[in-house]
Amino acid sequence: KPSSQQIKHWHQLYLNLKRNKSELNTFNLPFKIFKELSQAKNWEIIELRLKPEFNIDNKPVSVIFNYISGDTYSLMMIGMDLSFPEFNCYQQTVYTGIKRAEQLGLKKVYMGMTSSFEKRKFCAETLSTYSYLQIDDHYNMEVIGSISNLKHLKA
Questions:
Q1: What is the pTM of this model?
Q2: What would the pLDDT profile of 127-145 be if each residue is shown by its tens digit?
């Protein structure tokens, strides 16, 4: 069972990467979710560390949260310490997830919705995804639209 300190570190790693990604704009996941994932049955959490000579505090430099369902392994979230770009931590983390799916004998690996360029390096196939939204209350959208129109008038 992971310690509260360890889960806090995972959450921080997640926030590090989330703040630097602009492909998919979502809200930040709360700490509580990471705590619950650490106890959830079909979830695996894998930490990656550098050798001690490269990272004195020996904390994980990346973490990946994977979901197992039937014959499918889904790489759901990655968190990273961005102070080690020379080690290609993102690529190594994705690779570790793929290798874990192989170890478990799973037939499919889903790699998420962002970083298509990086994932193509692993021969990932891109699938189009669509999302639809229905709004019941249009007031907020009208306010945002009117603010946008005001900005254009001032220019």
A1: 0.72
A2: 556 666 677 777 777 777 7
